[in-house]
Every structure is written in structure tokens, then in C-alpha cells.
């Protein structure tokens, strides 16, 4: 299973996304920030592997958008999480596959001191309540859950190269990091990659296009597989598929892939 913020599916398709999808052995791929309606996707993105496509587009044209691509047809698709404010923002979709619910999340990035940060705080509050309900529903149905995607928060100091200078920046404020801790400590979900690779620093999953951030590996780990404990225990291998060089990148994020022995 893989997750990646594609930074625009049409742009990524021209840079290497199609080739990556053709080569991956993942059974499920979660995409974020696709910025296109299903009708606007390049046909070649799905054609190579015959993916089933479940998408949630934003009501704001050209913004956000998430998707889940699967080899098997999902038995259920849900857009949003019953939020009056956010269900049409293209930030959450979940699908049911045999024994597991898979979600693709694009959490707001925020901007400290602005309305965008207040929006992020409202999203996090609502989404935490939903995560609890999702966990309980899955438990009652004998299912597992994994929420993949761009969570737009670096959890700990080892998840951010220049953490000392970013403590007042969106994505690494004490409040955001504390909120993400509640997802693990209170809601009982597991950071699957960090469970398999507890040592840092990194590896990172996002690097700004500005300057030489990628070449210097000055990145952030903000893309996660966050799963219920039963599924997390079945994870046997995880990697960040970092491009070999700057010119080979097809997004400012790198895919995060986990093999689950299920």
C-alpha cells in the first residue's frame, strides 16, 4: 500500500506518475492534492494497471482533491466524514476492502496567525472525533483501518530537518504536534512507518522546491500510514520512495509504501 501527495495529478502524469503507477506492486494507492475532477484525470494514469478509482473532488476548482486507487473494487465508498464545513473540500475519502477500511487524507496545511490556521484547528477537532467513531465502528465489524495521506504535521523533532527554526511554523507548532499525539495516545492509532523505523532523523517525505532543500535533504516527514493496532502489527516493510535526484521528482512529496502481511 502506498500514499503520495501528487501536487496535481495532471502535472505529475507528465513527470513520472504514470510510470511509477505502472511499476508499483501496491494493491492500494492513496493520492492527495490531485486538483482535478475524475473527468479531468489523464486517461493514462489509470489505464496501465486497470485501477478502480474512488475520488473526492473539492468544490473549489483546481484545489485539494483526494483519491484511492485499488486493484479490487471497493464494497463501499464514503466521501468526507459528516462535516458540514469540510465534506466538499476534497480532503477525505474512505473505501472498504476485504477486512480493512482505507482512507486518503489531505489535512489542511494552515498558516500561523491567519484564518487558514483556524481552519486547520477546526478540521483537526472534527476529524479527531471521527477517528474515534471510525475506530469503534471498525472494531464492531471486525475490520482494521488505515488513514494514509498528507497529515501536514511533523510529529517529532526527528521528523523535521530544521526543527529548531520551525517551531512557530504551521506543521510543527506545539499545538499541532500535541494534537497528533492524541491520535496515537488517546485514539490508539499507530504511526506505522515510525513503528518499523523508530530511529531518526527522517526519512523525510516532503521537500520544498525552493533552494536546494531536496539536494540537502532538508525535508519534513508529514506523510503517514496511521493504522489501527491490529493492522499495524502486520506491517513488515516500509520505505520512502525518494527520487534518486532532483530532476527525477514528479512531486514535491515522495511515496510512502508499506507492505502489510494480510
TrEMBL record:
Cofactor field: Mg(2+); Mn(2+)
Q: Known Gene3D superfamilies for this protein?
A: Endonuclease/exonuclease/phosphatase
Where is the site Transition state stabilizer?
152
Q: What is this protein called?
A: Exodeoxyribonuclease
Xref: InterPro entries: AP_endonuc_1, Endo/exonu/phosph_ase_sf, Endo/exonuclease/phosphatase, ExoIII-like
Pfam families from the UniProt entry: Exo_endo_phos (PF03372)
User: What are the record keywords, sorted?
Assistant: Hydrolase, Magnesium, Manganese, Metal-binding
**Site, as annotated: Important for catalytic activity:** 223
CDD domains linked: Nape_like_AP-endo
Which biological processes are named by the entry's GO terms?
A: DNA repair
The cross-references to SUPFAM superfamilies, in alphabetical order and at most eight, read:
DNase I-like
PANTHER family, alphabetized? EXODEOXYRIBONUCLEASE III
What the entry lists under NCBIfam families is as follows: exoDNase_III, xth
Query: Where are the active-site residues found?
Result: 106, 150, 253
Co-factor binding details: Probably binds two magnesium or manganese ions per subunit.
The Swiss-Prot or TrEMBL record annotates one GO molecular function as:
double-stranded DNA 3'-5' DNA exonuclease activity
Q: Which family does it belong to?
A: Belongs to the DNA repair enzymes AP/ExoA family.
What residues correspond to the site Interaction with DNA substrate? 253
Superkingdom, taxonomy of origin: Bacteria
Binding residues annotated for Mg(2+), in chain numbering: 5, 33, 150, 152, 252-253
Task: Give the Endonuclease/exonuclease/phosphatase domain ranges.
Answer: 3-253
- Organism whose genome encodes this protein: Actinorhabdospora filicis
Amino acid at each position: 500500500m502506498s500514499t503520495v501527495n501528487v501536487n496535481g495529478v495532471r502535472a505529475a502524469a507528465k513527470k513520472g506518475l504514470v510510470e511509477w503507477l505502472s511499476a508499483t506492486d501496491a494493491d492500494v494507492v492513496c493520492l492527495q492534492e490531485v486538483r482535478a475532477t475524475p473527468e479531468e484525470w489523464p486517461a493514462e494514469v489509470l489505464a496501465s494497471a486497470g485501477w478502480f478509482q474512488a475520488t473526492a473532488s473539492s468544490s473549489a476548482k483546481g484545489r485539494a482533491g483526494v483519491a484511492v486507487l485499488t486493484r479490487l473494487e471497493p464494497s463501499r465508498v464514503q466521501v468526507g466524514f459528516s462535516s458540514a464545513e469540510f465534506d466538499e473540500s476534497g480532503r477525505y475519502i474512505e473505501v472498504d476492502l476485504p477486512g480493512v477500511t482505507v482512507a486518503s487524507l489531505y489535512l489542511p496545511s494552515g498558516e500561523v496567525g491567519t484564518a487558514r490556521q483556524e481552519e486547520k484547528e477546526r478540521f483537526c477537532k472534527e476529524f479527531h472525533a471521527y477517528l474515534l467513531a471510525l475506530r469503534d465502528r471498525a472494531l464492531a465489524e471486525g475490520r482494521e483501518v488505515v488513514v494514509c495521506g498528507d497529515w501536514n504535521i511533523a510529529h517529532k523533532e526527528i521528523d523535521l530537518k530544521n526543527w529548531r527554526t520551525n517551531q512557530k511554523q504551521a506543521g510543527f507548532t506545539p499545538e499541532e504536534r500535541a494534537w497528533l499525539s492524541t491520535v496515537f495516545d488517546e485514539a490508539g492509532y499507530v504511526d506505522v512507518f515510525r513503528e518499523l523505523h523508530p530511529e531518526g532523523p527522517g526519512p523525510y517525505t516532503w521537500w520544498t522546491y525552493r533552494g536546494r532543500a531536496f539536494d540537502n535533504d532538508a525535508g519534513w516527514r508529514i506523510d503517514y500510514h496511521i493504522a489501527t493496532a491490529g493492522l499495524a502489527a502486520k506491517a513488515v516493510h516500509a520505505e520512502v520512495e525518494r527520487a534518486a535526484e532532483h530532476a527525477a521528482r514528479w512531486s514535491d512529496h515522495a511515496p510512502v509504501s508499506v507492505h502489510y502481511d494480510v
